[in-house]
Automatic annotation (TrEMBL):
<keyword id="KW-0813">Transport</keyword>
<keyword id="KW-0676">Redox-active center</keyword>
<keyword id="KW-0809">Transit peptide</keyword>
<dbReference type="InterPro" id="IPR013766">
    <property type="entry name" value="Thioredoxin_domain"/>
</dbReference>
<dbReference type="InterPro" id="IPR005746">
    <property type="entry name" value="Thioredoxin"/>
</dbReference>
<keyword id="KW-1015">Disulfide bond</keyword>
<dbReference type="Pfam" id="PF00085">
    <property type="entry name" value="Thioredoxin"/>
</dbReference>
<dbReference type="InterPro" id="IPR036249">
    <property type="entry name" value="Thioredoxin-like_sf"/>
</dbReference>
<protein>
    <recommendedName>
        <fullName>Thioredoxin domain-containing protein</fullName>
    </recommendedName>
</protein>
<keyword id="KW-0249">Electron transport</keyword>
<dbReference type="GO" id="GO:0008047">
    <property type="term" value="F:enzyme activator activity"/>
</dbReference>
<feature type="domain" description="Thioredoxin">
    <location>
        <begin position="48"/>
        <end position="170"/>
    </location>
</feature>
<dbReference type="InterPro" id="IPR017937">
    <property type="entry name" value="Thioredoxin_CS"/>
</dbReference>
Length: 170
């Protein structure tokens, strides 16, 4: 299944609505902006021309890491007796989907040793701000409710495994 991306406006009035960084970066570029407030998500995407086509990846697969919210944060993360891994992600974030797959593998391999969760920063920005999350994906590891390790960005599985081992052995 293929979907067409929206075109960057070409009229001068419509082009003014496109952020300057997007105009400078060109079509198809992804430009990150820092988070500035609770009401502003902080990331804008420049779309490729309508003639471009990109494959759409199905999100219908079953995740092994459970989705967590601010309502269950205290119980499942802070009060956990076993080490916990939390991936901070956003639904629109492509690199986050790659990290989801790695976290799912880790959740299977380390079942019983560590619990894995996903937190959508779009829905729970308060928690992301509490842990100074400025971009996604970010993986934080907790032991006895305290943050012990962090992995920022999309990294090879070995980075996550090494961080987990440090937390388990700590």
């Amino acid at each position: 299944m293929l979907a067409a991306a929206a075109a960057i406006p070409s009229s001068s009035a419509a082009a003014a609505a496109v952020p300057p960084a997007c105009r400078a970066a060109g079509a198809g570029a992804v430009v990150a902006f820092p988070l500035t407030s609770r009401s502003e998500l902080g990331l804008r995407v420049c779309r490729a021309p309508a003639s471009s086509r990109f494959p759409v990846v199905s999100a219908a697969r079953q995740l092994k890491a459970a989705v967590i919210t601010k309502d269950s944060w205290q119980e499942l993360i802070v009060n956990s007796e076993v080490p916990v891994l939390v991936e901070f992600y956003a639904s629109w974030c492509g690199p986050c989907r790659m990290v989801h797959r790695i976290i799912d593998e880790i959740a299977e391999e380390y079942a019983g040793k560590i619990r894995c969760f996903l937190l959508n920063t779009d829905n729970d920005l308060d928690i992301a701000e509490d842990y100074d999350i400025k971009a996604v994906p970010v993986v934080l590891l907790f032991k006895k409710g305290q943050k012990c390790e962090s992995v920022v960005g999309t990294m090879p599985k070995d980075f996550y495994v090494a961080a987990i081992q440090r937390v388990i052995d700590f």
